[in-house]
Every structure is written in structure tokens, then in C-alpha cells.
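FW: tagging you since you asked about this chain on Friday. Here's the raw sequence from the shared folder, copied in full. Didn't touch anything.
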Amino acid sequence: MVFDYIDGAADDEVTLARNVSRFRDIELVWDALVDVDKIDTSTTIMGAASASPFFISPTATSRLFHPRAGELAVARAAHAAGVPYACSTLASTSVEDIATVNPGTKWFQVYVWRNRALVKDMLERAKAAGFGAILLTVDVPVAGNRERDGANDFSIPPKVTWRTATQALAAPGYLWDLVTTPEIRPANFAHIKIDGGLIGFINAQFDQTVTWDDARWMRENWDGKLAIKGIATPADAQRCVAIGADAVWVSNHGGRQLDTAPASIDTLPGIAEAVGGAAEIILDGGVRRGSDIVKALALGANAVALGRSYLYGLAAGGEAGVRRALEIMDSELRRTMALCGRTKLSGLTRDLIFQRTLA
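HL: got it, structure written out here
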């Protein structure tokens, strides 16, 4: 059930597959006979220095994948790699505890919920803990239909059923970690009684009446950097700019919300053109290799957010697994840049993308 929660998506998982396959369809060309002895991947993302043009995307309840460390393992690995760490509102570790292991760049993901007082309280806590930006997610008016979860009797916290029990017995190490650590739940809301598990909490708090006026309210109530996550059209990207967002985050939620949505990489060029440099562009969805990062930056992104790429590492090896995942992505990025004959991120431009003209 844990693997499928990471690996799966909504409905027929068409968008999940396209997110990956459309990157594979993009072809790269190169400049020959270029001195590529020194490759520089350093950049700034929303004003924060980063060793690479990627960062940790917020994902809920990371202790589900590694019960003993969860978000703490990811936050430590991000700091060691010199890249920003983004914490989910629904993290299974509090923002205060995360701050103790990551003194570097930290961002906090948030929704506009029914309980505005709860949102304001979380913003204040995040700011006090050193989180310098918020990431407003706007593509979850309702939870997507993730059928693998139902087939596995998946819930947060996990419930004991015949299916979950037999799966857990097949992974005794994970089961031991699960039963000998605190219950997995939204740690930032430990002071609130939550009935119906995480999904019940989400459904109770998600406000289906949210509009751009509410996003503007979020901008007015946060004096740090703001990214709006879950944008798929040029018109919405321009609305982000109009309310003062610092970054437009191109995303289809990893295919976990609206199935048959276009791949993020396909919506990126039009959005980048519409924004016209008035805000930074972040992309997620389907990024599995360093060459994918090169393609995203060449098509207009300033940075990419990694989700599944590091979650597989977390589930497989805890902090060491996340560090290894980030190392792989960084080394592949550097190798691809060298093979393309470009030594700086500013050189990753549209002319690297091969334009096929033959039928």
C-alpha cells in the first residue's frame, strides 16, 4: 500500500504516464568542441541560494514511507545537498521539529482552508520556525480518485484490515518501525481532534468556494515569498502575477488529481511565454532524470520540484536514500549539461530542443 501510494495516481493514471513519456519525446542537441571542464549548477530560487536548480517538493505524511525519520530524513538530506526543502501542511512531523534539523532554506506548503484562523496560525508558526516562503496549492478543490489506495485499504493513519495486515506481515521491518513509533498523523495539527483520518480531515477543511480573492487574501497575510502551485494555463499564470505571486508553479499534482490532464512539460512553454519574466517558473511532474531538468529549464522553467524521485529513496533507505536520489539527479544534470556543451544554467535555452520538421 505504501509503494502504491507513492507510485500511483488518479483514475486510469493517464496523466501520470504522460508526465514521464512526454519528457522522453523531447530530443536534445548539443554544441560541439566546448570546454566543459567546469559545470556550474548554482542558482537562486525565489531569492534563496541553491546548489542545483531543483528542490524537495512538499509531500504529505513522509513518516508513512519511513516511520522512524520521515520528514526529518528528507529535511536533513536537502540541507546536506544545499537545496531548499518544502514541507507539506499535512506533514507527519511539526514545522518546529523540522527546523531543528534544517537551518537552511525551508518553505511551507499551504491550502486556503475553511478555517482561516487555522491557516493564519500555521503561517505564523511557519514564519517563527524559519520558513521563508509559502507554496499555495490550488489544484485540490476535492481529493482525486486514487484507485490503488482503495484497492489496498489505504488510510492515514494505516488501519488494520486483512489486506493491510498481510502486506505488513510481508515487510516485518517496516511493521516493527510502524508499531514502535508514534502514530502517523498531521503533526502540525496535533492539538486538533481529527475524526476520519487524514482524508476526513482534508475533506472537512478543503473549501470548494475558494477563488482568486482568497489567493489574494493569502498574499496579503504573508510578507515573504509566495508561489502558487497547480497552474496549467497561461491565463491562470497571469492571474498569479496579478496578485503578486513570486513564482508560478506549473503542476498537475503528479497526475493525482485530474486524470487526462496534459503533461506539465507540455503546458510549460505557453505559461512561460505568458509570464514573460514577471515571476519565476517552477515545474513538477515526470522529472525522473537530470536530462529532464535540462529540458524543463530550456523550455522556460527556472527550477523543478522533485516528488517521487526522492520518495522512492526515502522509502528504500531513509536519509541515505534521499541523499543518494539527490546525488543521482545532480550528477545526471551535470553530465547532460556537459554533453550539451553548456556549462551554466543560463545556457540551457530553447535552441537545445531539437525541432523535428519531417513527418
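FW: The longest strand covers residues 225-231.
HL: agreed, and The chain is about 40% helix and 10% strand.
FW: great, closing this out.
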